[in-house]
What does this fold into?
Amino acid sequence: MKKKKAAPRETTMPQALRLYVYFSAAITGAAIMIIEILGAKMLAPFMGTSHFVWTAQIAVTLVALATGYYAGGRLADRSPRLAVLYVAILVAAIYLGLTIAIIEPIAYWCLKFKLATGSLLASGILFFVPLALLAMVGPFLMRVITTSLQNVGANIGRLTSISTLGSFAGTILIGYFLIPFMPNSMTLYLTSGLLMVIVAVYFLVWERSAPTLIALGCGSGLGLVLGFGGVSKEALVDTSRTLELYRSNSNFGLLQVLQDRDRNARYYMNDFLIQNIYDPVEKKSMALFTYMLHDLAQAYTPKIERALCIGLGVGIVPSEFARDGVQVDAVEINPAVVKVAHDHFDCEINNLHINIGDGRQFVNQAGQSYDTVILDAFLGDSSPSHLMSREAFKGIKRILKPEGTLVINSFGEFDTGKNFFCASIDKTLRTVFKSVKVHANGNGNVFFVASESADLKIRSEPDFDDVHWSTRRAAEDAFAGLQTINPKDGIVLTDDFNPVDYYDADNRESHRRRLAFRMRSL
It folds into this structure.
């Protein structure tokens, strides 16, 4: 009778090294999530925040992970040396430094393509390689720490659990602490540096040799120099034309205030996109929409005693209502905007009731009625879709007085084939309100006025003498420019089906491209 062969004994990895391997798995898991989320945020100033950008980033991440898992397993079978894996982590760190340095030229180059294609190209060029290299860690370490089948389940479960907990920590860290309080480029730079430290500790403790340490120092130095160049470039501002008065990251993008040196023009920017222009000497906005929102509400509403502004911006429209003696509630999702509005744009925040939160949530919970509701909420270059649906408009109608008005600022086109957004908003509003008016002057801004009043008409003409000289002609044209839209060119937008990002993509791409290249000229 043959004796059964004893199961091969598992080679014991030193306890300190085993713990360090688990720690490395946690750090690389955190880094993967930081890169995935931060990647979309870093592309947002150029590509926007539409579902195309997030789809591209998630798709590239998934393909990179699949590639890394496969490559890591194959590599571990061929050469299960930990040194090989830590070299891969070092290459990922160096590439992240390169990403910081080249993200702007790559993003501008990708703007030449359709948004879906450009987003995929940008995400792939900038983030595929480091994500794939970091994804190699899991399968490689599973092979290295398991030399027999006896404990394979426990080892894989333990390693996967630790890596996943690291991903969880990275997600919380980037979402709640790093993005709001640190420049995106610096966050990626520190992530790259942390990966280099992980590699350096391994080679200093367990694989020390002169050639290895020299190569490690050269590689790390290259990554740090590349990343520092990118961070420094991000921090530098061309002061020949503009002076940067304010710069800070926030939960909803990078906020900047720039002062033009050649004229009395102050720019408010969110993720490098101009959101408003202000004359600090005359203390007047130089943006058309600020006058149209206020003046259309005053023109169409019998009497305004209480107004709700969804979207504070830099506070010009709410402050104008407050100066009219109106009680104003303003809802702003980004708390960082309030200080910017007060410090740089003369927003009279003490005369406003400012609520920090989502406009839709505020409307759903509001118990008071308003004479007018101003909807001017933008996320980059477009309005959040959940504020532009039939259900959202029904919620606003609920808190409007019988002859109250809803005034909306948006961007759109009227030519057949390009008017899906405008036609859909118009059609959706007409399913909720009895009367809808559309104003525009052809510069891209489109203003909707909706009311339950069957006789919606202009009751008082605005005083255009109050409009900044640079914007007066545009305001007169927009006020007089009533538009008619073919309802067959749009659909009723609902919470369940709101495909505006897709069907209006060409218009939004064109608008964002103009804004992005205009910012580059500043």
